[in-house]
Design a protein that fits this description.
The protein has 2 domains: 351 residues, TIM Barrel, CATH 3.20.20; 83 residues, Immunoglobulin-like (Sandwich), CATH 2.60.40. Helix content is 27%, strand content 17%. It is built from 13 helices and 14 strands. The strands form 3 sheets. The chain has a 7-stranded parallel beta sheet.
Length: 454
């Protein structure tokens, strides 16, 4: 069995061959590869058979036939599909005929993201690559009859410098082997040995992802062999030097505690500096990760709201992983594409204060709630993110301590800005330029670059 490959590391420490041991103390001691902290912004893509009904959310199957079922989902099926229709019948309808991996890669590039995470398998169990452990429930055997993971990985790597990552659900809602192990209190390991472990080893060896984004760890880490897998990933895998992982490796006791970086919960946004690298995984659609046809415009974040999320996140030491859900036929719908391109246009002007930045001594201004801060690793500049343009064109910020040689500029605007000390030499009053639309290099938020402040 392939599981024996990762168990081999259990004996290798006796020979001095394993740097990281299969326990959390050792796994958690691994330094996070620097590229991830520098990246700041990534794109999440939830795509699967749930994109066919595109109703309610990516949890459609569970909400239809789980315990308890959701009446709205049950009624949707009764009103729109024949009696006896099964979730598996959606499989051939997941066609992806308009999926153009090169076009997707170009949109990802235009977004300004430095990494992308695609769902290789969600809780429904459908694999987006030709897994040998998911016969007839994968994108090669039915539906598109294509290796969707492989095609996007190749396009991203050939057309961009974006890091390619994969989401992987450890469990499956209705897989009989998982339900068998669950009924046995997870003392048996049939699902893990025959399905989960071969699949996760396969995506690492076949597609060499820079991120392994685990989810659905609805069992103890001892059942999943989480630490054994991560020891193999860090010591022996083809991505051992650059791979990063999150914290979703067991049912309880892992979130916000173990792993490479912390996600803690969906849409995690603490609003204050954290002592460990973290990620805010959130969605352009306010309610769903998968594509939902009924989402109104009011249910979509506008670009100003998304930039606010990015700024808050990076000021507090996190990365933003922003999700869009493609359609069953392989399209990124225009409203999602627009948001991604808007983000990219803003980052093209203001990325200097974002990429590679680190938190400053203050995250949010003490007086002005519309101002957040970052700084550089050399501490040679402080970036003040202004989320709201003041009506009188003068912004007061309280946190920086200015000196006579303090210099203030605005990213995208070539001239130095005038400023003066605040009341009692506390803070700064900064005079913003009067700009007409032809002089405006960006919208939605602006970044002041402060030199010689502390």
């Amino acid at each position: 069995m392939r599981i024996l490959l990762i168990l081999a590391c259990l004996t290798l420490p006796l020979l001095g061959s394993c740097q990281y041991q299969p326990n959390w103390d050792s796994i958690d001691s691994r330094p996070l590869p620097a590229w991830y902290d520098d990246a700041k912004f990534g794109i999440f893509m939830h795509w699967g058979v749930y994109s066919v009904p595109s109703f309610f959310s990516e949890w459609f199957w569970d909400r239809w036939q789980g315990d308890p079922p959701y009446p709205s989902v049950v009624n949707f099926m009764k009103e729109n599909f024949r009696p006896g229709f099964t979730y598996a019948d959606f499989g051939p309808m997941f066609t992806a005929e308009f999926f153009d991996p090169n076009a997707w890669a170009d949109i990802l590039e235009a977004s300004g993201a430095n990494y992308v995470v695609l769902t290789s398998k969600h809780h429904e169990g459908f694999t987006m690559w030709p897994s040998n452990a998911s016969w007839n429930w994968n994108a090669k055997d039915i539906g598109p009859k294509r290796d969707l993971v492989g095609e996007l990985a190749a396009a991203v790597r050939s057309r961009t410098k974006i890091h390619f990552g994969l989401y992987f659900s450890l469990f499956e809602w209705f897989h009989p082997l998982f339900l068998y192990d669950k009924a046995n209190g997870f003392q048996t390991r049939e699902y893990r040995n025959q399905i989960m472990m071969p699949q996760i080893m396969d995506i690492v060896n076949s597609y060499k992802p820079d991120i392994v984004w685990a989810d659905g760890a609805n069992a103890p880490d001892s059942y999943w062999n989480s630490t054994e897998f991560l020891a193999w990933l860090y010591n022996e895998s083809p991505v051992k030097d650059q791979v990063v992982v999150n914290d979703r490796w067991c049912k309880s006791g892992c979130l916000c505690k173990h792993g490479g970086y912390f996600t803690c919960n969906d849409r995690y946004d603490p609003g204050k500096l954290q002592n460990h690298k973290w990620e805010n995984a959130m969605t352009v659609d306010m309610s769903s990760w998968g594509y939902v046809r009924t989402t109104p415009l009011s249910g979509i974040f506008d670009i100003h709201g998304l930039i606010q999320k990015l700024v808050r996140t990076i000021s507090c030491g996190g990365n933003l992983l922003l999700n869009v859900g493609p359609t069953h036929d392989g399209r990124i719908v225009p409203i999602f594409e627009e948001r991604l391109r808007q983000m990219g246009s803003w980052l093209k002007v203001n990325g200097e204060g974002v990429y590679g930045s680190i938190p400053w001594r203050k995250q949010n201004d003490t007086v002005n709630p519309d101002v957040w801060y970052t700084t550089t690793k050399k501490s040679d500049a402080v970036y003040a993110f202004l989320l709201k343009w003041p009506q009188n064109n003068t912004v007061y910020i309280d946190a920086p301590v200015a000196e006579q040689n303090t210099n203030v500029t605005m990213l995208g605007y070539g001239q130095p800005l005038k400023w003066e000390m605040g009341p009692a030499y506390q803070g700064m009053n900064i005079m913003l330029p009067f700009l007409n639309p032809s002089q405006t290099t960006c919208r939605w938020a602006w970044v002041l670059k402060l030199r010689n402040v502390f």
